[in-house]
Amino acid sequence: MTTIQVYNTLSGKKEPFEPLNGNNVLMYACGPTVYDLSHLGHARMALVWDVVQRYLRFSGYDVTYVRNVTDVDDKIIHRAKVMGVTPEQLAREYTYTFWHDMHCLNVQPPDYEPKATEFIELMIEFTKGLIDKGHAYVSENDVYFDVASFKDYGKLGKKNLDDLLVGAREQVRSQNDLSERKKNPVDFALWKGARDGELGWSSPWGSGRPGWHLECSTMTKHVLGETIDIHAGGEDLVFPHHENEIAQSEALHNAPMAKYWLHNSFVQVNSEKMSKSVGNFSTIQDLLAMFSPDTIRLFALQTHYRHPIDFSIESLSATRTAMARLLRAASYANPGTEDNGSKSKANVQTFGEQLLKQNKEQISRATADKHDPVKDETTTQFRQAFLEAMDNDFNTAIATSQLFQLADRIFQEEDKLKQSGYAQVFTQHARMLGLTLVDTRRHVDIAVSEQVLDLVLQLRQNARANKDYQTSDLIRKQLTELGINVMDITGGGTTWERA
RNA sequence: GGCGGCAUAGCCAAGUGGUAAGGCCGAGGUCUGCAAAACCUCUAUCCCCAGUUCAAAUCUGGGUGCCGCCUCCA
Q1: pLDDT category, A181, cuts 50, 70, 90?
Q2: Would you kindly state where each structural domain of chain A is located, as residue ranges?
């Protein structure tokens, strides 16, 4: 099997990817906290790890991919209070919108999607274990992790405890209630006691809720195991979130939590991180109103996942133009449909049905070239360059550039059979990146259809004015067949409505 | 202050020792009733300075600018 190179945050280097247990890959990505609509930054995270798990499967690994949903957290509680709903209602609402966004973007569902609230009992067990081993202590109704008791603390985020203490002391001074409860300013909460009326679960330490980091440690352990292959997430989770997960899990298990720690970079706006707190975000739903899922995906994949992407409507528009070219190239895969396939036959299948079909048809690395309808220097070179790029720490920027180069070959090819063959190879590889290639070039929105109708009716009026009633009647008849009733108003003017 | 990262054409963006992928925009041409698409051609020596090397965007040192994390954050 060809070796994939991955950049491991833990070592700060690219390393050959070798799963711990033969062909099995256990992969966990930190999912969203569901307290609001997801924005492009969340989309990038989901898209990147979606492509990674797709590529690992393509490469022949038996992947178990887990992405959690954080459905209990301070932000959820605060937002719910503001909106006058319960935290459960709020979390469920935004879980649904997240799923909707993911489906629209053709992000494959993970194999398991644990929610924090489903693991409270096990988190309590986890905490007890840490207390028993002397890595955690109870303070009033809270439980804290004793950072000083874990000698490797800081190995992921490349921090040393002394430096952290200097900074932490100043922060804690401003929250002096906390400083009294913690032995050490950098200690973090495993369990937070609930104040009056606050959301809480009963525990040996009274009513309360888990600390943020605890859920990922617990769910990783119980869904996948004590040591997994890949733990992934956004760059901002390196410290303290993943650092604290490591501290908890490794202190309890005396075993590495994950072999590879992978992190994606941010989406920026004017060179500044896109985030809720800055307020410079574009929600996935807003963007989907303007751009196709494939455009958004291509936009994300044209930059390497460890580099920041600078977002602007202009650059997304540029990607839309580029995406149109890829769709045109793909349309040669099924000769004949280019010209007569637009008679709405393609729309019989729903988007969801198309995606399921595509996933079923997805090729694997071992058998990929056997399926090649055409096998020559072009396809061989293309595949080699494409796979080489993906093997090299999932370099989707190079992989997509190869798609453009193959697209050029498709356009140039005069032999129809070859052209179609190239286009099929093109399609297979584009779908490996999760591009749907659902042809959106002829999708017309309501505003445009209205204007087109106005135009047609204007032409009909012109015909009537010229007493060309044959033409004007033909137009009306055809529109009627489409379900559009055309009504001339006595005294001039025309209006229409759907029958 | 500590840690990490980035700086490549008008814009976006790959490339980490052997002489600059790809996308968008633009220019000229072919095709076309006109246009669009397609096709052909053209558009950079890589922030600055010094060094290592036969050879550097790519390594080393220094400088400048920008960003992220260290507090919730994908």
Answers
A1: confident
A2: 5-269, 315-432, 446-498
